[in-house]
């Protein structure tokens, strides 16, 4: 009996032990199933985070060149400082020391250092002096990586066309922005292994080996012509204390932009010192009422439609002409009586222009305005282009035909105007303008841009006759300060009143002075537009803008080795 009780108790103990093991095994098996099966992804991710780090290396942007291969935007190496908070002996002390050395917010560093992360940026793309100062601290857990930093060696030269990049190396304006995807190739993510203490193994070497350079850009602009244009434009804006200025130099046969300048200038190396509205490339983005330069389109249409030739005579009303209840006067109160078409353009008669427009007719005039590309984007390969504004002919008032004939009630971009006049210069073909010549990789073109014909707008005969008229304008009319020794010049002045702030009329003392033309007139190498915004004292385009045209032309033709043709 006694032995039986012992055996019974032993069996109970054995069963209890077995039950305990079964329950324990069940709990363990449930945990294993939960970890290995149900939450496998979660714990694998945690494991990878502990032993691996994933970074996106900063690629090196491609170089931007001028048409001759001269560097305008390059990437240079700069040190960026990072920290591994897991290696820092004293995060608070380190944050204070680094913040003083690099002039960064210590509270931000303290917050970042107290996170369980193996990598944080402290300050990117620091100066060599800053790098030397941090290195001399010799702090465990602080390291350096090389990154590409954008640098513009020519400073303000073509600054707005080129644009600039932000701290992440992505373009924010100009061609840096519009060609960002080609200039900087997005890299594959880099996975870096860490040791048991959270330290990266071969981190810097792997990071820097993974960096890839983007495609290069070759622009159509010529560094020398760009410099000449900016220098001469800047000098005149300063002389007349003007609000600003724009100038464009174009090859009239190809549509290539050889120079595009703005004043005041813009240095992309220090873009943060400028307001955002000062970033824009005004030759492409801004529109203005062109004033008398628009008479070229009117005259081209009149000659092409054979409603007048350069020797036809028009009665100019002795300087005063009433239309639709509005009395229109000549500029500077000239009292012209009879003028030929050539003299109307040469002396820039507003009333003469109205008489030509009336003979041409609103529908014909409107059609030629559109034909010359006014009111439509040129689709140049630059960002931010404006279309200007031409009201539909159905919206014209009783005075619109008269106003538009001398460049009011219509707005154009400088690019549209130079493109239209280049069509007159080259024999009547409207070309699509372009500013990017090629996208290249390792010196080989991945994408090229070629001259592209949009349409014929006037005949070669009309082009020649209009060139004769514009030569007369420079020799004997309002454009005499554009005369260039050794070359025949074709050109036209413009002096446009600016619209009043209330949009109900025109300012009495704020003008846009301009000159547009091409040289040599019979076989032009360059077409040039010069605009001076709100010059003080003198407003006439022939006084203010024509001399800039002359100097840009003189120096550019010498640089291009274009021989003088008239014996001077």
Overall description:
This protein is of the alpha+beta class. It has 2 domains: 60-219, Penicillin-binding protein 2a (Domain 2) (Alpha-Beta Complex); 223-269 and 281-559, Beta-lactamase (3-Layer(aba) Sandwich), CATH 3.40.710. Helices cover 37% and strands 21% of the residues. It has helices at residues 2-38, 40-51, 91-102, 106-113, 128-137, 159-162, 174-178, 180-183, 203-209, 223-239, 282-285, 295-304, 341-347, 350-360, 362-371, 400-405, 414-425, 460-476, 541-544, 546-559, and strands spanning 52-55, 64-65, 71-83, 120-126, 142-151, 190-193, 216-219, 244-250, 257-263, 313-315, 320-323, 326-329, 338-340, 429-431, 436-441, 444-448, 453-456, 490-499, 506-519, 526-533. Strand 15 (436-441) and strand 16 (444-448) form a beta hairpin. Helix 12 (295-304) packs parallel to helix 14 and helix 12 crosses helix 15. It is elongated.
